[in-house]
Specification:
Blueprint: H1 14-34, H2 40-50, H3 57-64, H4 68-80, E1 84-88, E2 96-100, H5 102-123, H6 128-145
Length: about 150
């Protein structure tokens, strides 16, 4: 017999199951990206840049919910790989912008295909209505909690 004040089992918490699935989805995607020489965080930054011409690092930090230092580190790694370029701002010589190089622009759709494949591997068995409901619920939690940082770790 279990005492009345015994702690709940791990599996009794929805957060446990969210983390369980999230860990596997994220780890599997990270392995796919590693095969292309890119991390999840680098992919996220590249995907944001894909929809823009040139973006200030401070703007990227705000968009991604990261510190400027984190964006700088990501940008340094991507620049070393030849996937993004830094350019001095035409209006402020002290400022710079980041943009995908041609190699980076070509790579993003391939990485997006890996993301799509990873998504399918984990979630295609879920009926569309249930998937849509799950997405609505998760987005509602994000909204209610005011979550802003991209989940890139």
């Amino acid at each position: 017999m279990t005492p009345a004040n015994a702690p709940a089992e791990l599996g009794a918490h929805l957060g446990y199951w969210l983390r369980y699935v999230s860990n596997y989805v994220s780890h599997t995607f990270a392995q796919k990206l590693a095969g292309q020489g890119v991390t999840v965080a680098e992919w996220a930054l590249m995907r944001v840049l894909y929809d823009a011409d040139a973006v200030a690092p401070s703007s990227l930090a705000t968009t991604m919910g990261l510190t400027r230092g984190a964006v700088t580190k990501l940008a340094d790694r991507l620049a070393a790989k030849g996937l993004i370029a830094r350019t001095a701002s035409p209006t402020d010589g002290r400022a710079q912008t980041l943009a995908l190089t041609e190699a980076g622009r070509v790579l993003v759709p391939d990485l997006a295909a890996l993301a799509d494949r990873n998504e399918a591997e984990f979630f295609d068995h879920i009926p569309p209505a249930a998937r849509a409901a799950l997405e609505r619920l998760l987005k509602d939690i994000v909204r209610r909690r005011g979550l802003t940082a991209m989940p890139i770790d």
